Amino acid sequence: MISLLVGSSLALLFAFAGTPLFIRLLVRRGYGQFVRDDGPTSHHTKRGTPTMGGAVIVASVVAAYFLTHLASSAINPGSPGPTASGLLVLFLLVGMGLVGFIDDYTKISKQRSLGLNATAKIVLQTAVGVAFAIMALQFPNRNGLTPASTEISFVRDTGLDLAFAGTTIGAILFVIWANLIATATTNGVNLTDGLDGLAAGASVLVFGAYFLIGIWQWNQSCYGPDAGNRCYEVRDPMDLALLAGALAGALIGFLWWNTSPAKIFMGDTGSLALGGAIAAFAVLSRTQILLVILAGLFVLITLSVIIQVGYFKISGGKRVFKMAPLQHHFELKGWAEVTVVVRFWIIAGLCVAAALGIFYAEWVVGQ
Questions:
Q1: Residue 253 lies inside a defined structural domain of this protein
Q2: How many separate domains does the chain show?
Q3: What is the pTM (predicted TM-score) of this model?
Q4: Per the UniProt record, which residue ranges are transmembrane (predicted)?
């Protein structure tokens, strides 16, 4: 348990201290944000603000994770090192972050607000997602448990197995399913990242929830000495909790500088990385469908874009919202940016509370 506090604290300190140093580097190189011309006019003042701050978040989490394991091994040589599940979360975090970095760098190098085209971004995201999904079905531990299973999960595996038609077809269906989760989550966080601190603050709440879920799953593991009839078959729940705490800590450190008025933006480097990590937690902690509630704010904002685009095409140019994503609609209605951010954080918190309530209630009812 001490390692969880160490990992979270290290990530927070690294991000808090590293972000201003990264800001100075970006300013010297002239790596500033380009703002959409069709966005709210109030955002034009943000042009030139350093971006790609997500690199600090990713670096802080990776460093905190390995240093925590290194310290644990030094103090207790028998302690387990990095696990397959932990490394898979880092793979999707870093992999999606690299896709975002390429997108951010394209914007900066070409001096425009649009980076990679949609096709290129989807191809790169899919490549990372496929590699993650394939590896997640490998690396069984001594109990024969792999980081992911081919079953669709809610708060645990439901018994609805994608491998019903055979091992090969089941694996292919799982890869498609895992990619759908990863693509939806990365794009959801990316769409939410439009106001100072909005995506970072909402993500802290989601990772905080996975921190608690990981601890609970470890405490109620099917492979522990006191396994009950509602235990959880999750391969490395404590390591997942460590990473969730590190991500929450790094985001808090980054949020100090990202809150309004932001001195740095996370960019696609950050939003895609965070979305990838959230998707990895949903798959590896067996909470895939629960993610829809847990990440309810991201879902709501994504739906606003789908509704806006769909209605615009069907109606021949009419709009449901003044602007999509949803946070910009309320800006154009006259809400101050900070007001929108705090109220959306409240919505994110309510979604997280509801998801945790469902997670715990399912365990209680089954006793």
A1: yes
A2: 1
A3: 0.93
A4: 6-27, 48-71, 83-102, 160-182, 194-218, 238-257, 264-283, 289-314, 335-361
190 annotated as belonging to a binding site for a ligand: yes
* Residue 226, marked binder: no
For residue 133, give both structure tokens.
Answer: 């999904």
- Give just the sign of the alpha carbon dihedral 163, 167, 172, 174: positive
Handedness of CA 187, 191, 193, 199 (dihedral sign): negative
Q: Is residue 343 part of a domain?
A: no
Q: Which domain holds residue 44?
A: 2-292
pLDDT in tens, 27-70: 888 776 655 555 555 554 566 688 899 999 999 999 999 999 99
Establish if 340 belongs to a structural domain.
no
Residue 87 domain-assigned (yes or no): yes
